[in-house]
Amino acid sequence: MPRVLLIEDDPSVREGVGLGLRRRGHEVGAAETGEEGLALMAAFRPELVLLDLMLPGMNGVQVCRRIRETSEVPIIMLTARGDDFDIVIGLEAGADDYIVKPARTEVIEARVRAVLRRLSDPVGVRPEVEHHGELAVDRAGLTVAKNGERVALAPSELKLLLHLSASPEQVFSRQQLLEYVWDHSYHADARLVDACVRRLRHKIEDPDAAPRYIQTVRGFGYRFGPVPGVRR
User: Fold this and answer.
1) Cα distance between residue 128 and residue 138, in whole Å
2) pTM confidence score
3) pLDDT (tens digit, 9 = 90+) per residue, 62-88?
């Protein structure tokens, strides 16, 4: 089972979530502060991080940004509040998903499995590389390059790009993207899509031009392209 790094300052939550994940077969590394969690990253090499938003000292958003400087490991934010602002800030920092505490271990485990499925279940795997303008999308190798340089994408960003680019010009609603990319079926998580699109645009779009690849369809959702020069 995948290794999970849990960064949580509340000892009861840390012990309860850690115990529940271990009972389900996960190897769990636990840290009380952001600094301890970052130090443990290199030695433990987790395959997923559960990160509390409200940490003392270096908070969860700062930790998330530090992790994203060197790693695309999946990150799920844990927050004690359902506050929209806090959640959006966490997602903008690079988190792939979030869970509002308190949450049963079964719920946390389900979210962990859903996030990890994005890595093992790519969209429309084909042996060839697709070229969309300046983007090269290797579906088999799960890599994306722009102008020949690899673009580092978090799991949710990669899954979203693979899904949209598999059907250029097709419009997908936020709800459709939630259900396919995040395995979520409730409307409240539409912010996941919008935050992920903003991060993805920052990485693949030209900063001084209108979005070329991930286009907004006002009042409905998003589509990929049309981008001239598409070839396989």
Assistant:
1) 7
2) 0.68
3) 999 999 988 889 999 998 766 667 778
